[in-house]
Amino acid sequence: MKKLLFALVACCVMMTTSGVVLSQSAIPHVMSYQGVLADPSTGKFLPDGNYKIVVRLYEGVNEDEVVYSETQRVAVVRGVFNMIIGSVNPFPSTMKFDRAYFMGVSVNGGEEMKPRTALTASPYAMYAENAGTAEVAKSLSPDASVVTGINNANGNITLKGDNGINVAQKGNEITISATSSGTGLDKGGNGLQNVIYNSGTEIGGTLNLAGTVSGTGYLTLNNNSIGLGKLSSTGATNGKVITYNGSSIVWATPPVTTSVTMGGDVTGNSASNTIASNAITSAKIADGSIVNADVSSSAAIGYSN
User: Fold this and answer.
1) Rg (alpha carbons) of the chain, rounded to whole number
2) Topology (CATH level 3) of domain 5-138
3) Do 206 and 185 meet the contact criterion of CB atoms below 8 Å apart?
4) I need a labelling partner for 97 at 20 to 30 A (CA). Which of 5, 130, 150, 254 fits?
5) For residue range 118-149, what is the model confidence (pLDDT) as tens digits?
């Protein structure tokens, strides 16, 4: 079969009209092409009729691997034909038109025409669909959620730091950090070693502190908020109690008192005590409390009933 002269005019139909944005489902994944077939020896157009045209796409002008192909029977009138590429064999989802492609055409089973034609900018509008929805979003898990608001606030949201929290932005990167130790401020603007308010109800629930909390100020705990299980048992043994030894609070054995020196009308100690000599006087005896049985018969006193 004699060689053909082929002129190709490409026009991508993936577009948005002025003021109208097509949804993803409305964007056609096809390309509209128009070509002219002529006899290169005479320059005359091919006779009118139906011709089988095979279109192949490659990633290089001399590549052998075909990345896409489609066969259509099209009508040729005065040498001109029109094709909607992708209408018979849809473009695979892997073809995002984010690189150069070259098209080869053959007619009625003949050899592929040379040279191949490089696709111009119009077909690459297919890639705009991916740019609009963002390639990153397409790579997310199907069940991933998109954050469109924070705490019922939508639209543009400004992040601000307070009470020792800094928010810094560099390009598309946002860094949230705490103020370095020693420069944190409490509610009154006073510097603290650790940014923990020393008054109010800012901290609730369980507060876990790692390491040692030091510096000036104080931490107030609610009454009855510390149970026995929260006390350190280091140094504790059976029978020891928490006591103050004059310099610190420690676990210690409580002192045992074995003897108490008695005073006043009692003499001796707690283990052995007696009434002091000459301590009982009339004032110490209740009236009418002494009866005959309380008086010895050998007493040098007289008594009567």
Assistant:
1) 51
2) Immunoglobulin-like (2.60.40)
3) no
4) 5
5) 887 665 565 665 565 656 666 666 676 667 77
